[in-house]
Amino acid sequence: MSRIGKKPIPVPPAVKVEISDRTVRTKGPKGELVWSFPAEVAVEYDAPAAQIRVQRSNDQARSRALHGLTRALIANMVVGVDQGYQHKLEIYGTGYNCNLKGNRLLLNVGFMGRGVDASGKMREAQFDIPIPSGVTVTVEVPAARGDSEPARLTVAGPDKQAVGHFAAEIRKIRPPEPYKGKGIRYAGEHVRRKQGKAFASGSG
Questions:
Q1: Mind listing the domains of the chain with CATH numbers?
Q2: Mean pLDDT, residues 59-77 taken together
């Protein structure tokens, strides 16, 4: 039996679990999640013991793989609706900022090749990003101050995959560059820095 798959999933008191027609539903303080599990596994909820157990139908390679995967995904669902998941992001760069407008995230992260305006000045690129259903964004610090004090925002929600994917999409808009570190990064992320090219002049 899969080492991961055989472990019962503890269910906190604040979480409700329903299993029917190959579908598991979890509901808790942070929201509600629904997922249909594959036919190769069986899922049962032991309410008195407050545990979910996952079993596989046979020992074929696919069933063994799905056994552990199913257990991991359902465990994430339980944690997600009980505690939630989050990714904190930091935006470095003079003039860079982030704001919320309804259910959209607005990012200003420098000049990104949008051309010039009527006066000949470079247009700043503003990204208008719809926030997915089930995901929330909180802006703690809307504007960066220089290259040392970043703007800060948090992406959160009960669905671990959705939260991680949206945070990665935000970071991908302007990944941190290696010279001054400008761009969007995860809080605590180490950015490997490079030295700029040195130019020397001399008489021949």
A1: 9-82 (3.90.930.12), 85-186 (3.90.930.12)
A2: 94
